[in-house]
Amino acid sequence: MEVRVGTVEEVRRAGCRIVEIGGRDVGVISVGEEFFAIGDKCPHQGASMCAGSLSGTMVASAPHEYVYGQDDRVIRCPWHGWEFDLETGRSLLEPQRSGLRTYPVTTDDGHVVVHA
Ligand code: FES
After folding, report:
1. Residues 18, 5: contact at Cβ < 8 Å?
2. Average pLDDT across the chain, whole number
3. What are 1-43's pLDDT values in tens digits?
C-alpha cells in the first residue's frame, strides 16, 4: 500500500505530519533532505512521537572519550523522554525489547509517499 502524505514542501514545513495507515497513526518526519516514517504512538504510554524532539546521542567510543553522534537521528518522546533511533525505530536503551515500527518513504513527483 502506498500513501501520499503531501508535497515535499508541505511535509518539510510541518516537520512532522501524521497520517493514518491501516488504522494506525504514522508520523512522517522531515530531516534535512530526508524523510522518515515511524509509528506515532510511543510504546511506553502512548504519547504522540510527532510531538517529540530530534537530537543525537553519545556514541560508542574509547575509554575517557565522549563522542556525540547520530545528530537528528534520535527522536525523544515528549512525555518521559524515551529515545528511539529514527532509522531503525529501536529504543536506544532497550533495543531488543522496545521500538517503533518504521516504514519506507520515497518521493514521487514532488510528493512524499509512505509504503506500508
Ligand atoms: S509515553 Fe513515551 S516515554 Fe512515556
Report:
1. no
2. 97
3. 999 999 999 999 999 999 999 999 999 999 999 999 999 999 9
CB 53 within 8 A of CB 75: yes
Q: Is the CB of 84 under 6 A from ligand 1?
A: no
In 3D, which of 19, 5, 16 has the Cα closest to residue 86? 16
By the 10 Å C-beta count (0-12 exposed, 13-18 middle, 19+ buried), 46 is classed as exposed
- Tell me how long the chain is: 116
Q: How far is the CA of 99 from the centre of ligand 1 (A)?
A: 12
Full set of structural domains in the chain with CATH: 2-115 (2.102.10.10)
Q: Determine the distance separating the centroid of ligand 1 and the alpha carbon of 110, expressed in angstroms.
A: 34
